[in-house]
Specification:
The complex is a heterodimer. Chain A is an alpha/beta fold. Chain A has 9 helices and 5 strands; from the N terminus they run αααααββαβαβαβα. In chain A, a hairpin with a 2-residue loop joins strand 1 and strand 2. In chain A, helix 2 packs antiparallel against helix 3 and helix 3 crosses helix 5. In chain B, a hairpin with a 3-residue loop joins strand 4 and strand 5. Chain B starts with 10 loop residues before the first strand and ends with a strand. In chain B, helix 1 runs antiparallel to helix 2 and helix 2 runs antiparallel to helix 4. Chain B has a 5-stranded antiparallel beta sheet with strand order 1-2-3-5-4, with helices on one face. The chains are: A alpha/beta, B alpha+beta.
Chain lengths: ~280, ~140
Amino acid sequence: MLQKKKKSILELWMKNQLSDEGLREDLISNEELRSQSDELVTALVGNLSAENFSDLNSDEWSPVIEILGGIAITRARQGFSPRETGNFVFSLKEALLQVLQDEIKTDPMMLFQESMKISRIMDNLSVVTFETFIKGREEVILRQTDEITEISTPVIRVWTGILALPIIGTLDSARTQVVMENLLQEIVETGSSIAILDISGVPAVDSLVAQHLIKTVSATRLMGAECIISGIRPEIAQTVVHLGIDLSNIITKATLASALAYAFQVMRLEVRKVNSIQK
Amino acid sequence: MTTKTSLLMILSLSKDNIQIVREQDSVFLKNRVKEVAVKIKMGLVNQTRLITAASELVRNMLRYANGGNCLIEIVSSGKINGVRLTFSDKGPGIPDITAAMRDGFSTGKSLGLGLPGTKRLVNEFEIKSKVGEGTQVTILKWANG
């Protein structure tokens, strides 16, 4: 019965969607919306039969779920809110129920039973939509995390032979790995002899972070370069002492400026104020 | 065996429970601990100590027990306020607490400063552990202690 009504379902659904106040024309064009809806209704109606009606796990449903999942993921990436994505499915339910009502006018008992069936199936589909929607969002978050790790560990050449590496945020094992790799690579490429690790942006130094720092320093030394740790704030210094971490083998400075001054000293460079303006 | 200092006569003013399952949760926990510490006007040095201690314990929990639970409380002894953190896990437990509390002892490949270091960072420290059942560590830091 529903198969015959496919056209009117689609029309009604489109009308519902278009009349919805929350329609996001800025994010999706009407044509795109129509083709998405058409695809979904075709799959839904085409795979619907009396036997599999209540069983969402049956094979016939998988294309529908696939299409719905695809739509949900795209929407998550495009920046739709959960409500807007939910309304997409809920308005289909309304359209279906309306068609059903027009069809079965005489038998209220049957109308009720059919409506219940439709209702159940559509609720299941909306749950699927939400699950995929959230999955889509989580992927976005994971990608951003990767991006942050990438961009937050730049190696800067502050002077010929001197590298600086400001670390911002928590230093965990994965991050240390990235920092160490970038730093060692850059030491090889530039032939630098001094590297400054600035931890001004690290909120807390616990034993693991300290261990990571010590490892980075040892690795740098193996490469024949000296590593200075700068940006040690007073509260961090006290915490490190209380924890009992021994950093005495490492050159540490309070600020990046003093680390740079030390580096200049080691390289026998001098920064002087020019007294007379040269012409 | 328990290493115990007195946690009596202390009133709990607010409670907040945080599940620790993944490494990302530790960042969330540290932010929450900081919020609470700022709320009771804890000084910057003490805040850092408390957060570092929490960081050590949460890492132990993730590493050896695959996560657990952390209860954050604002407590009051009448005169001063403080933050109490209770870390409970259902991990393998610690067979020898005396050894675990010694500097440089580690069953993993760490520096072995986590537990003894934490004890030095906070005002009160209590550890209970049963092999096969789990471990509970309670720490307390006074606002100006």
